[in-house]
Every structure is written in C-alpha cells, then in structure tokens.
Design brief:
Two copies of one chain form a homodimer. By secondary structure, the first copy, chain A, is an alpha/beta fold. Chain A has twelve helices and seven strands.
C-alpha cells in the first residue's frame, strides 16, 4: 500500500511521513503527491496573519476548538521563521496547542521557512494538499511576519483573517494600509486592551474608503479576546458568511483556478533552477564563472545569458 | 554617453534613472549593469533589521547624519512592504529623512517588495551596485519585517545590525533567538523605556551562550535612543570595529565571494523562469496544462516534468 493510499484512507502517520519526506526533498514524495492530487480540493482553507505579538496562535487554538465542536476535522499549518543558523523552526510544534495533542481530529504541522526564494509557498501548497487528502474539513494556515512571504502563503487561503492588536507602533499603522487589502475579515485581538476601540474604528474607517462593487464582499472588523474565548463564535460565523459568499458568487472557483496556476508555476521555477544549477555545478561551469566574476573577466548578467543560451533549446 | 558612464562620473540623476529602469524591467538596464559591474565593490554595506516599531528609520537617519559628519557619501536602500493591491510601496520615500533631501552626499531609494519569490534580493543587489558605482562610501539597507526576505537581504550587508526595542510580545522573544544569529551588532533602541535594561541583559545572556572560536567576532549589544541622538557615536564605533575585524580576518573577502555566487544564482533562477514561462504561455502549452489540471487529467508535478524534459537539452 503506497503512502498516498494510506493517507487517502485517513492514516495520520502516513501523512506525517509524507510531509517529512517533502521537507527532506525525498524523491519519492513527488510520486506520492501525484497520486493524492486528484483527491484534493475538498478542504476549506483559512489563512491567519498579522504582526508578531498579535496573539495569532491563541486565536488558531480557539478556532480549532470551535470547529472540533462542530465535529469538523482541522489541519493547522504554522509557518515559523527559521533559524538561519540551525535551519530549524524557532517556535516549533512544542509550544503549540497542547490541548489538541491527543485529538485525532486535529493535525498540526509546523513549517520552517528554510525553503528560500519561493520554496516556502510551494511546500505550503504541498502540505495543504496532504492535509486535504487526509480528509481534513478545515485547514488553517498561520503565518508570523509582515513580509512578502505571508502575502504569498495567505494567497493559498480561501478566507484570509488579518489579526491586529491595539497599541503597536507607527510602522504597524503604515503596514495596516497594505494588509487592509488582503483581509476578508479583520480581528482586533486583545480587545480588552486600551485603544482597542480606536484600532477597530480606524480599521473600519479605512475599509469604508474602498469602493465596493455591487455583490462584492465587504470585509468586517471583529473584536476578539482569544485568550478568554470571547468573540470566537462571531468569528466562526464571519468565516461561514465569507465562505458562503465565495461559493455563491463563483469567486471560489476562480480563486481555485488561479491557485492551481500559481502552484504549477512555482513548482516549475524551483525545478528548473534545481536542474540547471546542479548541472553547471557538476560540469565545472559554475566554478569557471565564479573565477571569471572574481577576476572581473565577466559579470553575472553576461554569465547568466551564456548559461541560458547553452541550456535552453530554442524551438 | 551611456547611463553607466554618467553614473561612474557621479551623476545622481542617471543613477535614479537606472534604478527606475531596473524596477520597470527595461531591457537596456541589464546592459548598463554589465558596464558598471567592474567598478563596484568599494562601498561598505550595512544592513539594519528588526521588528516593526523598533525605530529603524530614525536610526538610519542618525547614522546617515553621523557618516555625513565624517564626510562620507551615504546611500540608503529602504525595503518597504508592498501593497499587494496597488503594487506601490507602503511607507514610501516621502516620509523618510527629509532633512537629507537637499544633501547631494545622500541618496535614498525605497524598494518595494513586489519582486516576488527571490526577485527582491536580486534587485537589492542591483541597486546596491548602482549606489556603489555612483561612489557612495557607505550603503545602508533597511528592512521591515521578520520573515525570510529580510534574512536574505541582510545577507548582502557586510555588517548587520539587529534593532530590538523593549516591551514587545512573546513572539518577538522567540524570534529574537533566530535573529540572534544574523546580528553583528545589536541595538536596544528606545533605551529610555521601561524594560530596556532587561532586554539588553537578555540579549547579552543569549549571546554569551554561544561558543566563540579564537579570533571570531563577538556580537555586541548597544543601548541607543535614536530619537535623541544618544548612543549613535558608540554605534558608529561598533560598526568601525566590526569592519576592521572583517578586513583583518579575511572574512570580508570570503563574504564577498559568497555574495557574488548568490547574486549570480538568483539572477539565473529569475531569468530561467522568465524565459520558460514566457515560452509556454506564448506557445499555448500553459493553457493546455491548466485545462489538464482542472479536468484532473494531469497533476502539477507531472506537468512540470514534461515541460522540463522538453525545454532542457540533456548533454
């Protein structure tokens, strides 16, 4: 029985194994991914993002509990900043959601951001596919950070939740303007803190400045205290409303098609580069280019052009 | 007279023009970059990173003033999170360092993170090369965020400064563990705030847990109040000490070689992908693959393999 077959029959250990193989770049992982691919596309994917310290992990924990109460199976993919030194995840699974540890209906996976240069969003898509094939009803992707990484990862999600928190600095206010455009729902977490109402009002005001087309989704701002489980039901309802909108308007189908194209192109980019860079390292071309760059005989732009003209068949 | 010649003779407007051309993907920009490449490698590059709200921009402003007082020409590259909607930079040049606006010895450039998937670090390297060829003595790269982006961009810098600030949340503490390994100097900014001493002590304790080889650089923690210009001289001295160490130990030469290799490989990756993805879009292959993915006839992994085997000459 292949790993793929086991995963499709709900074998959690087989899923964990395939995810490890994906991480480690084991060649057979691709064959398994091919087998599960036709059985994906059933899970609803929720992305959660926001600045560090906004309480995203606690929120994910509460949402997980909420979906479990609805008898839904939940997969969680937590994107952790990687230690550039050890290559390991910094936050790690250990500190996450211990209370769901014995629940077979919850599968938690930390993904370290060591897959540089676009590799991360591709492997996120792969991991989401494994969880989807495993039969998870809801998959939550959580990202720390405010960079481009998170925008790309969240673009995998059907519903994106941006978590803000009162009382962060001016940079945050500026970033908010950018994050405004990716959120379907906005959560002001730690809503008991000073300034929560102001943060909520500011967000609402900024959102109201957008012109919405008839029938277009209007993002909502919700006050939550994740730590005390306040506002979680309203958030679950908000997600359900957005999902309903996505399904009814046809946006979901369009989104899934775009996601598919992106996944393919990212995979293509990674594999192309791997093939060609391996090739020039094995045949000594890379070493001679490096020598030429050091001596000043060539420059990186000319060197790339010569490699491209040698390697790509012009047809 | 080519743009490159003008830049090499110190023409600021020509430099600004070439940077715009790089951003816009104008084909001739690559030819100009080839011409300036042999004249680069003279500037000292300083990377500044840290979480949002740490006061990085103010710090960069003060360092710029400090180097100007030493009669050094300063280039600043500020990496801004991009609005995914408008494609424009969110913070923008406008709010940056107005007091240096009329100083010909300062060149400030905001770089938006719209160059997805590795494009950003490559274009940062290109912009640094333009500033270098323009005759800047010091180039400061400032990044907002805590993701992988910043780690890669900072890897362009000879000296990396990590800016922390007292009183941020637990996530930050965890991230600190990862950021610990990329900093040559650590700044506790807003050192007048409560908890500054604790933050400084924690950082020092964590750094002391590292085992340093004889002759290895030992990162230092400095207390700064950028807003009041306190501690800036000490920071300038710290940078000078690290630079001296890098030059004397031979680490600088090694670092420059690695940077050169990385720049070449990133350029290769971008250009390879551009060539191949353009090709399959023009010849209709992309459309047929997308149809196959939608119908379930193929999967992205198999589709990528077939494109690779068609496009790459096996020699």
């Amino acid at each position: 029985m292949s790993l793929a077959d086991k995963i499709l029959s709900g074998d959690i250990r087989a899923a964990a194994r395939l995810m490890r193989d994906i991480d480690d770049g084991v060649a057979s992982a691709v064959e398994e991914l091919k087998l599960i691919y036709p059985h994906t596309g059933h899970a609803y994917v929720i992305g959660i993002t926001g600045p560090p310290g906004a309480g995203k992990s606690t929120l994910v924990d509460q949402l997980t509990a909420g979906y479990r109460a609805q008898n839904k199976r939940v997969g969680v993919v937590a994107i952790d900043p990687t230690s550039p030194f050890t290559g390991g995840a910094i936050l790690g699974d250990r500190i996450r959601m211990n209370r769901h540890a014995d629940d077979e209906g919850v599968f938690i996976r930390s993904l370290a951001t060591r897959g540089h240069l676009g590799g991360l969003s591709r492997s996120t898509a792969d991991v989401v596919n494994v969880l989807d094939a495993l039969g998870m009803d809801v998959i939550i992707i959580e990202t720390v950070g405010v960079g481009q990484d998170e925008v790309e990862i969240v673009s995998t999600a059907h519903t994106t939740i941006v978590v803000m928190v009162p009382g962060l600095g001016d940079d945050i206010q500026a970033i908010k303007a950018g994050i405004l455009e990716i959120g379907d729902l906005f959560v002001v977490n730690k809503a008991d803190r000073d300034g929560a109402d102001r943060t909520s009002r500011e967000l609402s005001t900024m959102l109201e400045m957008n012109r919405y087309q008839a029938g277009e989704w209007r993002p909502q701002v919700l006050m939550v205290e994740a730590q005390r489980n306040r506002g979680i039901d309203e958030l679950l309802q908000g997600i359900a409303r957005h999902r309903h909108h996505m399904e009814e308007s046809g946006e979901l189908r369009h989104f899934v098609e775009e996601k598919r194209a992106r996944h393919f192109l990212e995979l293509l980019k990674e594999r192309l580069f791997m093939e060609v860079s391996n090739h020039i390292q094995v045949n000594g071309r890379f070493r001679s280019i490096m020598a030429g760059l050091t001596s000043g005989e060539t420059n990186p732009y000319t060197a790339v052009e010569s490699v491209l003209s040698e390697r790509l068949r012009r047809d």
